[in-house]
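Feature request, filed as a ticket because there's no other form

It would be nice if the structure record came with a short human-readable summary line next to the tokens. Right now we just get the raw output. Example of a typical job, pasted below so the devs can see what we mean:
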Amino acid sequence: MKQGDVIRYRDELNDDFAENGITAQKVGADFPFCPKGFFWRIGEFIAYYLFAIPIVFAICTVFGGMRFENRREISRLLRKNGGRGAFLYANHTHWLDAFVGPLAAFPYKAHVLVSPDTVSIKGIRAFVQMLGAIPVPTEKEAVRPFTDTIEERINEGRPIMIFPEAHIWPYCNFIRNFNAGSFRYPVKLGVPAFAVCVSYKRRRVLRFIKKPRRVVTVSRPFFPDTALPDPEAKQKLRGEVYEWLRKTAEEKSDYAYVTYIKQEDGE
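Raw output as currently delivered:
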């Protein structure tokens, strides 16, 4: 994508403009969602803390101008959350978004729910899993081990990042509609959720760089309403997170590097 591009869309829930060219593999019941073992833990630590986080931090902040606001809310809550994790819900506008959660939650190890594309590149599946990727299953039989892995990671005190918009819309500076499906996890497990908004700002320094800088703002924690039945609690939590994301994007974003225009039926 380049400055001034115009993208016309029809469906906020299903249109996808990532164009990664990857042929997704099936993620079934035999997929190793939750690798364990002494040597895996060592490899995971090296890949995550000694390799990925320092490099991505440099790319995003030093060279990319990314700035975080209120990120300490996450570690502050995790320290007093009884050893359990939390869920982070973010808008999805860049391929580097997968590292927004890990950077915001540092020093805690974060996981990210990803599409099957992410673990379909030959030869690097184990590596991306060490970086925290948990792929969404493509087969019904894999749902149980997938959800068991989510619960296990939360009980290990690790935050899990989710993109409820599902698809990447490059440099989109507004929040798209999304359903409440993924909010069943914090409701079921009884843990809080954070909204994480990536907004786009025009550069005031280094103006020769046309791409905007990104500001990542973290909300206060939102807690599931235990007085409501699960379906209603899920909808309520989704509404609170959506409204916070929408308002924050409106307040923080001041630059449309790519313009999105909704096409009505018949156009």
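Something like this underneath would help us a lot:
Residues 14 and 181 are 14 Å apart (CA to CA).
The first strand starts at residue 6 and ends at 9.
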